[in-house]
Amino acid sequence: MVSPAQTKEIAYEPVIGLEVHAQLQTESKIFCGCRVSYGEEPNSLTCPVCLGLPGALPILNKQAVEYAMRMILAVGGQVNGHSVFARKNYFYPDLPKGYQISQFDKPIGTGGAIQYRVDKGEPQCCRLIRIHLEEDAGKSIHPESGESRTRVDLNRCGTALIEIVSEPDLLSPQEAYAYLVKLKQILQYLEVCTGDMEKGHLRCDANVSVRPVGQKELGTRTELKNMNSFKGVERALTFEIERQTALLRAGGEIEQTSLMWDEKKQVAEPMRSKEESHDYRYFPEPDLLDLTITSEWIESVRAELPELPEEKAERFLSDYRIREYDAGVLTDSRELADFFEQVVALFDDPRTAANWIQTEYLKTLNELKLSVAEFPVRAVQVAGLLKLVSSGKISGKMAKTVFAEMVSRAMSDQQRDFSPEGVVRDLGLEQVSDESALALIVDKIISENESQVQAYRNGKEKLFGFFVGQVMKETKGQANPEVINRLLKERLGN
Ligand code: ADP
Ligand code: MG
Ligand code: ZN
Question: Which of 13, 110, 130, 165 is the best mutation target for the ligand 1 pocket, counting ligand atoms within 8 Å of the beta carbon and taking the most?
Answer without folding.
Answer: 165
